Every structure is written in C-alpha cells, then in structure tokens.
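Changelog note: in this version the structure field was regenerated for every chain. One regenerated record is shown below for reference.
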Amino acid sequence: MQSDVMGIPPPPASAVTLESKVAFLRQATSFPEPTYRVEAIETHMSWVFLTDAFAYKLKKPVRNDFIDFSTIQARSFYCQEEVRLNRRLASGIYLGTVPLAFNTSGHLQLTDGPTIVDWLVKMRRLPMHHMLDYAIIHGSANENDIGRLAARLARFYRSCAPIAIGPAEYRNRLLFRIDAQFLELSSPDFQLSSEQLKSIFQAQRNFLNSMSALLDARVLAGRIVEGHGDLRPEHICLEAEPTIIDCLEFSRDLRTLDRADELAFLALECERLGAGGLGALLLRSYSQISNDWPSATLIHFYQSYRASLRATIALRHLKEQQFRYSPEWPRRAKAYLQLAERHAACCR
C-alpha cells in the first residue's frame, strides 16, 4: 500500500497524535457533508466537533482509575456503547460510529480506509436554545417543560429492569465512594477547608449509619436501575418529547444507581444554575407520575453526595495541562462544596 507517487507508506495508527486528529477535524473540508464552519470543544474526556447539522465526538486516549480509552479498540468499543446506551433516551439523535482512517494516498479521511486510526460518535446536532441549561439561564424554562421531562424520565425508569443487588452491598458502594472523595479532596494541593470537608463527609457517613433503612427500602423496592449516570441540564433538550443525551457510557457500575439519586442530582444542578424551584417541581412531578415518593431526607443525602462528587470531578481538571491554570475549576469545586454542606445539614 503506498501513500503517494513517492511510494511512502502511511504511518501506523499509533503514530498519529491526538493533536494531528484534532487539527484535521477542525477543518470544514474534513467532513462528508457540507458545512460552513466547525466549532471544536474540548472536554475532560473528549473533543466534540460541531458542524452545521451534526456533532462528532472523538474520545481522548485517557487512562486512569475510572476510564481506559488508551487503545483504538477500547475507544471503538465505548463509541459503540455510547450509541447503544444513548438511544434509550435520544432516539434518532445518535446516528452511529464513524472511522477516522488513512486513505490509499496516506491522507486522513472521515470514512473507512486501509488503516483506521480512531473512531468517532456521530450525532444530529440539537438546538442550543432548547437545552435545559440554556433555558434556565435565559429564564425560558417553564412548568410544562418540567412536566414533560418528568413524564419522560418516569417512562424510562419503568423500562429499566431492577438491578440485583443487596442492601448491604449498595450501602457499602456508597461508603466506598464517599471515603474516596474525602481522601481525594483532602489533598493539600487543593487547599480546601479541612473543617468543611470533615463536616460534609461525616454527615454523609452518619446518614449511612443512622438512616440505612431508607436506603435498604429503595433496594428492596427495586428502585436501583441502570440509569443515565450523568443527568445534567446541559444534556437535556426540551423538545415536545424531551431528548436526553450524553449518558455515562464507560462504567456500568457508575450508571447503576437509585432513581431518586439520579433525579436528586438533576434537581441539584437546576439549583446550582439558580432554578431550585424547577428542580423541586421536577421531583414532585416525577413522584406524582410514578407513585415513587423518596423521603426529603434521602434526597438531601443524595444531593450532598452528588455535590461533593462534582467538586471532586471539577478539581481533577487541574491534573491536565490545558486546564491547570484556569480559575474556573477551583471556583466550581467550592460552589459544589457549599451545596454539599447545605444539603448535608438537612440529612443529619
């Protein structure tokens, strides 16, 4: 196989750097459909390229305690998983996976070729002004939107089979994650208040000990399911039939959760954006539709737990060169810890 008239073969797939892939995908001419421009967005785990009509997601070759995207084979698998899982709540949006490959001339192309160097997820692009975070920030989200969303989520959870897990195992998973978060956030590198951290995490541990019956009842009632895993306003499109994208594809363990945990997290994110009333409405509407009424104390526990988790995730960005000097991530972590502390005070 020759790359050009000089007879130079294309390099092996492993030799193509992430920077080279990103540079290629920033060009409008790289995509199979005509597009006026390409917007490139970097996240913690991927690059997203927005064309006029579509979104293409390229996973970074990251590897840590939670994710292993270090090989082409792994990225291919998780691209397929992303499509499969997200079609549960975003029918017609996730179009499939697309190879990034060398052609016979040794040039990159976004279609099949002799040497595949990576894989991308292809999606239809959703209208930004219909996303829940945009609607909250601009004051356009309303009760009807939240009612439709609650109904959509209720239908989804009814379709999810209960996960076979014992009450003690479920509580031990939560305790393990709480302890891991405390250890990570206590690093001197982050310069966080040790008193605040002790207050938050001791309250969470106390809840697990003193209110274990609330958690056990959720398990025994079949409320633990394989859910979305990352239910945030920026992942929700408020169309006539709400569409929910970007589920957590890389860990079934982290997707396995209490329905109330997932809904409490979404309500927490609404609160963080200044729309706590909409979050509370979501919880009430869901309960009325599904006849599932988790206690307020349990919701506050889950919200404290999720807020401290989001603080941990925010500060992990500081370990990456491109995010290390941004003030956004420490600011966001401190905001989440304030939420974690406030909700912890309500679950004692």
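Spot check on this record: The first strand starts at residue 39 and ends at 42. The two ends are 68 Å apart (CA to CA).
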